[in-house]
Design goal:
Strand content: 25-35%
Structural class: alpha/beta
Number of helices: 7
Helix content: 25-40%
CATH topology of the largest domain: Cytidine Deaminase, domain 2
């Protein structure tokens, strides 16, 4: 299976040791390059290198990343997207080049990513939220609501659709649902990548904003995930793990209903609880 590799290992059990084949998730770098500018003065810039799982959704990952970073606003901004290989240096398909249409203006300063989540960056929570507010609109109340009974079945729905996780136990998943209909599910070793893949898939099909879906994440909730969800217009986000304090504060400001500690028996609703009945 693409994205999975087999290793011969020794497995130790209480009754002894056995030699078996073990499936593990592949982790490889993906570089995203951007081509932009007028037809007679095109420029190219490498804007991101991320460690990801090559599950066949690299284009979605690149598009979702560009959208959530505010570099593109729709799939119509894209002229082409393809793999490019550096002869003698890149033998695998680990470089994606996205060409923007000549009419799209790119602010080079905006291509410098700002990682507000690191504890050493010296940026406080308030500044982080203010930075995100400049990129995201506050989600309006649309009347979209879901029942507590529906929320309780989400862990089972997610688990039943995690194909790669079943084989390796080492991948995060992001899934968007409209009631019981599966819209998109993507897996990756990085939870941010999984969400970018889902958003990129929706972007390609011109489904944004996703104002009537629930996002389910197999991970904890960080404020970067909240920002990506808000950029895509997602009103409800449910995470298997815990939220951080900044994730809760950001969800409150941006109008997202945030669910954490999602279990079949119970779950916590931290913000905008009126969407759950």
């Amino acid at each position: 299976m693409y994205g999975i590799k087999s290793f011969e290992i020794k497995k130790f059990k209480p009754k002894g040791m056995e030699e078996i084949s073990d499936l593990v998730v592949i982790e490889e770098p993906l570089e995203v390059r951007l081509g932009f500018g007028k037809e007679d003065s095109r420029q190219q810039k490498s804007i991101s290198v991320t460690m990801r799982t090559p599950t066949g959704h690299d284009f979605e990952l690149a598009l979702g990343f560009l959208f959530t970073e505010g570099i593109i606003s729709s799939f119509d901004d894209v002229l082409s997207i393809h793999y490019c290989k550096d002869t003698g240096r890149q033998a695998e398909e680990n470089i994606v080049r996205v060409e923007l249409k000549p009419k799209i203006e790119v602010n080079l300063q905006s291509l410098e990513r700002h990682f507000y989540s690191t504890s050493s960056c010296g940026i406080c929570g308030k500044a982080s939220i203010e930075a995100i507010e400049k990129k995201c609109i506050i989600l309006p109340k649309t009347g979209f609501k879901i029942s507590a009974e529906f929320v309780r079945i989400l862990p089972e729905v997610l688990a039943n659709n995690q194909v790669f996780f079943k084989h390796t136990g080492g991948l995060h998943a992001a899934m968007i649902l409209n009631k019981l209909e599966k819209c998109f599910l993507r897996e990756d070793i990085g939870r941010h990548n999984a969400l970018d893949k889902v958003i990129g898939a929706a972007l390609q099909q011109n489904l944004l904003p996703l104002s009537d879906v629930v996002l389910i994440m197999s991970s904890r909730a960080s404020f970067e995930l909240i920002q990506k969800a808000a950029m895509a217009g997602i009103p409800i986000m449910a995470c298997v793990g815990s939220p951080s304090s900044l994730a809760i504060e950001t969800a409150q400001v941006l109008g997202i209903t945030l669910i954490g500690f999602l279990r079949e028996e119970s779950f916590n609703v931290y913000t905008h609880t009126d969407r759950i009945y």
